[in-house]
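Q: My hope is that you can spare some time for a protein that puzzles me. Underneath my words sits a plain record pairing an amino acid chain with its backbone structure tokens. Those tokens are not coordinates but codes from a learned vocabulary of shapes. Thank you; the sequence and its tokens follow:
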Amino acid sequence: MTGLREMTIQLRTDGIQHLYEQIYDYIKEEIRTGKLLAGERLPSTRFLAEYLQVARSTVDYAYGQLLSEGYIEARPCRGYFVCSVEDLVQLDGSGGFFARGKEAGGFRDGSGENFPEGNGEEVWNPGRAREGNGEEGRNPGRAREGNGEEGQNRGNAMEDRGFRVDFSPYDIDMSGFPFSVWKKITKNILSYANSDLFAKGEAQGDWELRRTISRYLHSSRGVDCRPEQIIVGAGNDYLLMLLEKILGRHVHIAMENPTYKRSYRIFRSFAYHITTVEMDEAGMRADRLEQSQVTAAYVMPSHQFPTGTVMPIGRRMELLKWADSRPDRYLIEDDYDSEFRFRGKPIPALQASDGHGKVIYMGTFSKAIAPAIRVSFMVLPEVLLERYRENCSFYSCTVSRIDQSILNEFIRDGYFERHLNKMRKIYRAKHDMLLACLQQLRGGFAVSGENAGLHLLLTARGKVTEEELVARALEKKVRVYGLSESMVEDAAGSATVLVGFGGLTEEKIREGAALLREAWGEFC
């Protein structure tokens, strides 16, 4: 391991680029080009801030993003060190991490907070979410309690099932949905619609919506695609079934364990041979793919469900290298809730680093907007796009053209961005409250997966089973969800439960956390 080195970074003060961005870009480029070597120690944030004559928070922010992307690692009591990465691909500056606006102002992160340094306004505008019906889905068709009658009905339904608090990791908060805006857009479209809107549309979805999605994905997730590569469908279930027609039958596919059970069940309904691949702290192990002789791998690199693992850049490159080694290998990237991140900036999609057309990118609007939207999309590499046109272009689009027009205007005119900023604030407040309320359980439980998403994981430190934790909670009429529910194959491990907060009010979070402390107090 090499020692500490100083950094001479020439910072511009013309306001074109924020100071923390310049520090982040410089260090990332040094690592990417091999000028900073694996294991090399970086200056402390205090030292670098004093050396560059900037606020320490500026360096903290740059280091935080490098840390979240896996370029560097923090070692307790020792500092920051460069991670081992290879074949790094840098995103094109036109559609990378930051989408610049024209108005003057501060930087807004996912929480809506303003960061004053710099002159240009930058709006972080990340990706999508995922749907699924039923308890095993990550976002079932029911919405959690909001304000007024809707919240009261949801609360009554929860009591009818025998729960005082349901920490579902699948539910979302509908109280912040812009009903008036959606109603206004719908009214305008129906008022001025012509006969074309009621005619059969394009099989892949309306061109205007696909163009809007492609531009949005490029600015928010770094996804590089043309509108022609996008297929719009009513839910990921339909798109996965369509993908089977594109990839063909008898595909040997790899999935993480634990994983999103709904996708597993859909793949199992095909003639697919499914192999589970063990995970480590970085996600799916690429070396296990070679041993399994698989031709496709289903991954959730931005926020793995249910563990919450964020795949670092080094592991992403390993997966891309595996896929590049043979022409028939592909990665299916499920980017289901990357817009809700509470520490650092969302990491660009895996597809953004794909230079050889090996990533099939999938996303949805169900969790970011509402479950009933039922609009998902799939971005196909060029080679697979040709297969789609040859074998599947006769399938009609499963989304109403009216719904497509409403969604297109909602995104295009900036309503979606404003809605996301609002929901990030709401979810961040709930996230922080839940962590604070669970503080008394820290002695007996380890918390993980709290950096992103709408749930976190609690793992018991002592000798207790998952079943016992769930049962003790049920005695207090509180529902939590065992990690084993997402297991494809049984795996020995610690007792871990999922605790969701997205659909709960802050009052219910406090009540539920207090009941959990009563139920599990003896384990702390």
Observations:
- The two ends are 39 Å apart (CA to CA).
- Residues 87-137, 139-157 have pLDDT under 50 and may be disordered.
- Residues 476 and 518 are 8 Å apart (CA to CA).
- Residues 415-437 form the longest helix (23 residues).
